[in-house]
Amino acid sequence: MVNKVLLIGRLGSHPEMRVYESGRKVTWFNLATNERYKDNNNKIQEKTEWHRITCYGALADFVYENITKGKLIFIEGKLHYYKDKKDVTRTEIVAQKIRVLERKSSTQQIEETPSVEPSEIEKEDIPF
Q: For every residue of the chain, which 3-state class applies, written as one string?
């Protein structure tokens, strides 16, 4: 079985971080992806989808310290469903790899990020 998500989009908000008593870290943010298509009148339309992204461990640190609102990034991760405090089922994408697709300046290379192993992700670490 496969549970894999690949997205390219822009951060819609600055990442937020939470550190648990155990020292484990989680970072989350919203990512916007855009889709263009022609409607019935042959006019180009654009639709934006918003995705909740969650990162753990070294990846959480990297995102919180290096990625800001508006950055174009590539995410590889998996879908995760959970129930919030009001017993409403929510969907998030747990990032396993993130790559910044924009350079900070013309002399810098595209940033590579650490990856997180799925075993590092624990249900009780979800911040909502």
A: CCCCEEEEEEECCCCEEEECCCCCEEEEEEEEEEEEEECCCCCEEEEEEEEEEEEEHHHHHHHHHHCCCCCEEEEEEEEEEEECCCCCEEEEEEEEEEEECCCCCCCCCCCCCCCCCHHHCCHHHCCC
User: How many C-beta atoms surround the C-beta of residue 32 within 10 A?
Assistant: 15
Give the pLDDT confidence of 92-112 residue by residue, as tens digits. 999 999 999 987 655 444 445
pTM passes above 0.85: no
5-123: CATH number: 2.40.50.140
Compute the distance between CA of residue 101 and CA of residue 111 in angstroms, rounded to an integer: 8
